[in-house]
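Sample entry was shown:
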Amino acid sequence: MADSRHGTLSQLQAQVRTGNSSLVALIKALVDPAIAVACLFLSSIAWGHPLGAPEMILGVLTFSLMYPSTVPFRHHQHGLVRQLASNWAIVLGLLVMFGLAIDVVRVFDQNVLATWAIGTPVAQTVAHLVSPYILPRLIALRGETTAIVIGASGLGQAMARSIADDPYNKTRVTAFFDDRELERLGEVTGAPIAGRIAEVANFVRANKIDQIFIALPMASQPRILKLLDDLRDTTASIYFVPDIFMYDIIQARIDTFAGMPVVAVCETPFHGTMGLMKRLSDILIATAAVILTAPVMLAVAIAIKITMPGPVLFKQRRYGLDGREIIVWKFRSMKVAEDGANVKQATKDDDRITPLGRFLRRTSLDELPQFFNVLQGRMSVVGPRPHAVAHNETYRKLIKGYMIRHKVKPGITGWAQINGARGETETVDKMAMRIRYDLEYLRNWSLRMDLYIVLRTALQALRDPQAY
């Protein structure tokens, strides 16, 4: 339970940052995209090419694809070079793919592009290697701040550990305050218990405390209100750490709604500009896919029509965004077209699958018509795979958090599929594993993650043993 509490706390801290943490978060978000753009401009200048509109447009596209950077600043970070190189390869691969699709690659000098492609990950690696030594020294110039934590429970101690473990946050937790006896609290680490909550105000004034973190349960509202009233004549910054670690947090953040402050504990990652970026990437990828695979889709349609009677496309009712029903298209791979109250999942050696259909399913060619679903706005290129309505109605009663996956549009491929949770889910445990991956995707979504999933899917399409 302690790990899950600490994870939840980290999610909230990603949205609520104080002092030096906000500066470091901004630098971390900007460093990799800014270096990539700087390397592009420097490469152009080094090869004697003036910066023009093409370079500016490419710079904006690169920055948009890479922002915000997700590689942390850490001492001795394992796999740093691999992580930076793989992130850059995904962005570069997407830019090359779009450049070839619209025939603009030849606008740029090949020497400039080669220098940029090699120089960017090298410069990013150097920046990440030196940052853990430079940033703390710069931050130390601002001096150390002191803090106390009200509440010595697991949540309060997790807060203190997070502060102590952050090398860029020069804040020292000096004490805990709690009304419970030591026997009830158990072992408390990180700082001593300095007294009861009623003594906080005097302690803050006497010791010139800079920050106060209130980590009391929500049920303690009267005590919290009394504490806030006692602290009105101090200059300390006061922060409330919500006691919501018992929930399955999805995209937690602090926000305002109708002018009132709220804590989001379960929300879609695609709000505001993120939603626009997701939709634009869907349109670009789906359009490119339709153009590139049009001859293949035509050949598949003809082959289906020749080898079996009935329609070429199989239409099935699925749950889409917010649990609303949508119609999903696939190339027909079975002799039947089930879409009733009871739908049997495809199994290995299923006699309903035709020989052609087996090939289509193994190579994922049967999914190609879903790119039209993406262009319609019913689906996304990447997201939780849509299940038949009959399966949804069964599993939503058996698996906790099952319907949360419908906070986003269903996808042609997803995080679960590239991690092996594809194919038949003949047991509840297998479906639960798929849902865990889906929820992990919602918690950690980024545009770069989507591009990584697309590339992994393309590489796995011809050799996935679970595709049948």
